[in-house]
Amino acid sequence: MSAERPPEERVIDLGVELGPVRLPNPVLVASGTFGYGNEAVDLTRVRALGGIVTKTVTLEPRSGNAAPRLHETPSGMINSIGLQNVGIERFIAVKLPELLALGVPIIVSIGGRRVEEFQEVARRLEETSGIAALEINVSCPNVKEGGLEFCQNPASAAAVIEGVRQVTRLALWAKLSPNTSSIGTLARACEEAGADGLTAVNTFVALAVDIHSRAPIIPSGTGGLSGPAIRPIALAKAREVVRHTKLPVIGVGGIASAADALEFLIIGARAVQVGTASFPRPWLAAEVVDGIGRFLREEGETTLAELIGSYRDPRA
Ligand SMILES: Cc1cc2nc3c(=O)[nH]c(=O)nc-3n(C[C@H](O)[C@H](O)[C@H](O)COP(=O)(O)O)c2cc1C
After folding, report:
1. Whether 190 is catalytic
2. CATH number of the domain that 107 lies in?
3. For the whole model, what pTM was predicted?
4. Residue 164 domain flag
5. CA of 94 to the centre of ligand 1 (A)
C-alpha cells in the first residue's frame, strides 16, 4: 500500500535493533540532560522518543559538586555536576515506576567508584522488570574520589563491564570517554568484556578560568565540555569506535538538529542521543525523529538501514 502513496506521505519504519535491544526509532535523550526522564513529560512528546537514558544512578545518594556546576562557553557548556542523584534505592522505589509508565524504552545509566559498586547497582536493577538496557558510565571525568580511573584506561573500563556482566542479564551499553589516547582500543576492550553496545561519547575535559580571581570558574577545576562545540570531534570519535568494533554504536555529542543526527547515522552509529541541546529545547529530540523521517522520504530511502553506515569512507 505504502508504495502507492506520494513520497511525502510514505510511512517509514524508523525502528532499529541494537543487539538485543529494539527501539522504535534511533533518537534517545542523553544521560543527565533530561532529568531522570520524567520531568520533561509536559514539555515534549515523550512517546515520540526512541528511548530515555536516565541520569547516572549510584549506590548511595550523592549531593554532587559545589556550585557553580555549569559554565557557558561558545556553542557549548562545561559541567561538573558530580553525579548528583537520589541513589539506587530511591531510584527504584520512586523514579523508575514513573519512568516505566511513560511507555518509552528506558535505559538506566549506572555509575560507581569501584567495580563492586557498579555490580551492586546492577544487581538491584536486575531484580526489577521493564528496563531496556543499562548504560555503564565508565567515563565521567568529574568523580575523583579514589577508586579506579575508569575513564581513560581500557583495562579498568573492561573490569567494570566484566563485573557487571557477571551479575545481570540486562543488555549493557558502555559509555565511552573521549579523554583517552585511543578510543578504538577502549571500545574493543569493552566489547571483549561483554558489552552489547557502545555509547560514544561523554564530555571532553575542559577548563575555564576567571581572569580576575585567577581561579577556575568551576570550583573543582576542570569539567566536561558538551554541546554543538564538540560535535565534529565527537563524530570523529564515534567513527573510530564504529571502525574498531562490531557492536552497535550509539552516537552522542553536540547533536542539535536532524542533520547533526544524520551525520552520526551515516558514519555508522545505529542510534543517537541528544544531550545539551535539550536544555533550551526539551522538544528537540522529538523533532529530530521527525526530521530523520522527512530526510529519508526526500532521499527516496525506505528504511533506516539504508542510511546507517552509508558513509563513503575514503580510508575504506
Ligand atoms: C549537565 C550535564 C549532565 C550530565 N550528566 C551525565 C550523567 O549523569 N551520566 C552520563 O553518562 N553522562 C552525563 N552527561 C553527558 C551527556 O550524556 C553527553 O554524553 C554529553 O553531554 C555529550 O552530548 P551533548 O553535547 O549532546 O550534550 C551530562 C552532560 C551534561 C551537559
Report:
1. no
2. 3.20.20.70
3. 0.95
4. yes
5. 22
